[in-house]
Amino acid sequence: MRDDAADWLDAEWIAPRRNSDTALMLALAHTLVVEGLHDADFLARYCTGFDRFRDYILGTQDKVAKSADWPLV
């Protein structure tokens, strides 16, 4: 599976650790929110609970941001 991306993409294959898929998804979501790459209008219109999820990944309550560095902390 490492080789199924086209060579011109110059893609890097990253193998996540076992049982780290949730941490990886939370870190990706954190990056999207922090960098403003999420569709806030769509989320406000069609989703419920995003405010709570955003607060969780930003660490509003527990003071632990679920960033890419979080699993290593």
Describe the structure.
With 73 residues, the chain is mainly alpha-helical. It has 3 helices and no strands. It has helices at 21-34, 40-46, 50-58. The longest helix has 14 residues, at 21-34. It is globular. The two termini are 30 Å apart. The model has no long low-confidence stretch (mean pLDDT 90).
SSE map:
Elements: H1 21-34, H2 40-46, H3 50-58
Keywords:
3 helices; mainly alpha; 73 residues; single chain
Summarize it:
With 73 residues, this protein is an all-alpha fold. It is built from 3 helices and no strands. It has helices at 21-34, 40-46, 50-58.
Which structural category do the helix and sheet elements fall into? mainly alpha
Catalogue the unreliable spans: none
In percent, how much strand structure appears in the residues? Answer: under 5%
The average pLDDT value, as a whole number, equals 90
Number of strands: 0
Instruction: Work out the helix count.
Output: 3
Query: Helix share of residues?
Result: 40-55%
Task: Report the principal-axis shape.
Answer: globular
Major sheet attributes: none
* End-to-end distance: 30 Å
Order of helices and strands: HHH
Rg value: 15 Å
